[in-house]
Amino acid sequence: MGIDPSARVHASAVVEDGARIGPDCIIGPFALVGPQVELAQGVELKSHCVVTGRTTIGEDSIVFPFAVVGEVPQDLKFSGEETRLVIGKRNRIREGATLNLGTAGGGGVTRVGDDCLFMTGAHVAHDCHVGDRVIMVNQSALAGHCVVGDDVIIGGLSGIHQFVRIGKGAIIGAVTMVTNDVIPHGLVQASRGELHGLNLVGLKRRGVPRADITALRAAYQALAQGEGTFAQRAERLMSETDSDYVREVVGFVLDASDRSFLTPV
């Protein structure tokens, strides 16, 4: 495909041979586009950003100045193997953000969904899988192999430990270190990442029915105070509830994990 005739490429930009630039793309001054990059229709690369590696960026996404997208992983085991970074549609990658390629040991692909916002200095490490409508606030970071569900918000200056899963709709407060999995719709805060309840504001904003919010609150109390282990409490909930939202939480708890869970405090 090469460079589509409708694309606008500044004279000072470097687009290496082999790059595929779609219709209506804009490549700003001093931007660098590597030879294996593919930009879908309407992607805009602002000045001084770098997009390299085997990277695909979906329609109408914008990469802001000094962001580096598709560079090699910050992993000493990486030895130059062919890996990828796949970014969905309508993403906003702000100044100084970094998103890395995958590694062979982690499946080979770092993947980002649609409609995400990566604020200034945010970092997505190798082999992470990030859902749709995720917001990573300034200077927050995902270590390698993290899985982040849809509609998650990660507060500024927060760090997520490698292999951690963050369930759909969860919110992580600012300046928080998260070392264990976070249940869907969970609210995490404190410097060492404690589960302090549910993201009720987020649930209401997304229009979740009141009955399901009530069921989630009851399920949270059962997980916090019931008899048996955390997993045993979750198993009981699965047989007792008719709420899809509660089943989502229970399924997340019972699924395979490389980390333990943050449990209610």
List the helices and strands and how they pair.
Layout (H helix, E strand, L loop, with lengths): L7 E2 L4 E2 L4 E2 L4 E2 L4 E2 L4 E2 L4 E2 L4 E2 L2 E4 L4 E2 L4 E4 L12 E4 L4 E2 L4 E3 L8 E4 L4 E2 L4 E2 L4 E2 L4 E2 L4 E2 L4 E2 L4 E2 L4 E2 L4 E2 L4 E2 L4 E2 L7 E4 L4 E5 L1 H6 L4 H16 L4 H11 L3 H11 L11
Helix pairs in contact: 2-3, 3-4
Helix/strand/pairing category: alpha/beta
Count of distinct strands = 28
Q: What is the distance, rounded to the nearest whole angstrom, between the alpha carbons of the first and last residues?
A: 55 Å
What percent of the residues sit in helical stretches (DSSP H or I)?
10-25%
What's the Cα radius of gyration? Answer: 20 Å
Order of neighbouring strands in the sheet with most strands: 1-4-7-10-13-16-19-22-25-27-28
Poorly predicted regions are none
CATH architecture of the largest domain: 3 Solenoid
How would the global form be characterised?
A: elongated
Give a short account of the largest sheet: 11 strands, mixed
CATH class of the largest domain: Mainly Beta
Put simply, the count of helices is 4
Domain unit count: 2
Q: Average pLDDT value?
A: 96
CATH superfamily of the largest domain: Hexapeptide repeat proteins
How much strand content do the residues show? 25-35%
CATH fold name of the largest domain: UDP N-Acetylglucosamine Acyltransferase, domain 1
